[in-house]
Amino acid sequence: MARSLGRDPASWRVPYGAHVSAPRAAAIAFAFPAFAHLVDTVRLVPSHQRGVAALAVAASMLVVRYGCARRAFFSRRIAGMFGWAVAGVLVAGGLEFSWWLHGLGPGIPARTFTATAWATFLEGPVLQAAYGSTFILIQRGFVAERSDESADQVVVAAGVWLTTVPFDCSAVFSRTSALARSPFRWFPPMPGPISAWTTTVPLALALVALARLALRRRWIARVGAGREPPWQLVLWDGAVPPGLPTLARTTPSTPPFVLVTPRTGETPYRTADSLEPRAALLAREGRHRRVLQP
Q1: Largest CA distance in the chain
Q2: Separation of CA 11 from chain center
Q3: Quick one: which of 4, 46, 161, 196 has the most CB atoms within 10 Å?
Q4: Alpha-carbon Rg for the chain in angstroms
């Protein structure tokens, strides 16, 4: 739970630093249903040509969905976030949809095929796009903050979302693996271990992230009260050093605070030059979420 600060063994480590950034955490969570589908496909499809094709489709869906999610959550514009996210969902869903129709087509009458195709399209890629757009709305505020705290908030929100609204993991992404087993038979969402871990894993990660949030805030409060020497939280005059990680966000319009430690070989707190910046607490832009009080 710590961020390394250099190769020197004596270097200080900031406790509870995020392992991944908020945008990357959101992208991973956005692609998690496609990963669950790939695992489902590996588990269910037989080892023959049709099974290999199903695995290729599932893997392609995961790559497309994660790649577009990365572009979406690293975008600074809301239009870019929605555009890339919906594009990834539609392309990935289109791959699965095309595969499903390709196997289904020869086995049913044309009129039935057309009706089934429309129903499946509305139930599949279109509904997934609406699902993905809602996920963007939930996460965009956390992603915009770009702090260690917001990275954990992303995980908490994603875990709750994937646990309470698991449609994208089970109901839609069930056709590729099912079709590999039988092209003319509908398989409902698979019960058992697969459906269990697609909700258990996000929930477990959300609980871990929630604990990290509480422990980080408690630790920062102790530093601010002078109870975690040699760490010190100082009001920073001037520009915050570039490249300094943001540990958390404070209330809007609050001046920046910087977490510092003594430089190696220096007398603690002798002068400002003897303090080494480690992480920043920057003011949050906006007013709709409870934030840290420094």
Answers
A1: 85
A2: 30
A3: 161
A4: 24
Residue 112 CB contacts under 8 Å (≥ 6 apart), including other chains: none
The DSSP symbol for 277 reads E
**What's the CA gap between 54 and 180, in Å, rounded?**
6
Query: Tokens representing 16?
Result: 């509870």
Instruction: Give 235-261 pLDDT, tens digit per residue.
Output: 888 788 888 888 888 877 788 889 988
Is 8 in a helix, a strand, or coil?
Answer: coil
Rounded to 10 degrees, the C-alpha dihedral 20/156/83/67 comes to: 40
| Structural contact between residues 247 and 146, judged by C-beta atoms closer than 8 angstroms | no
Long-range interactions of 106-111: CB distance < 8 A, separation 24+: 106/183, 107/183, 107/184, 108/184
Q: Which of 23, 182, 202, 18 is nearest to 103 (CA)?
A: 182
142 C-beta neighbours (distance < 10 Å), count:
25
Q: What is the pLDDT of residues 99-112, one digit of tens each?
A: 777 766 565 566 66
Helix (H, G, I), strand (E, B), or coil: what is residue 11? coil
Residue whose C-alpha is closest to residue 81's, from 117, 17, 27: 27
Q: pTM of the entire structure?
A: 0.78
Residues pairing with 5 in the sheet: none
Show the tokens assigned to 190.
Answer: 């698979």
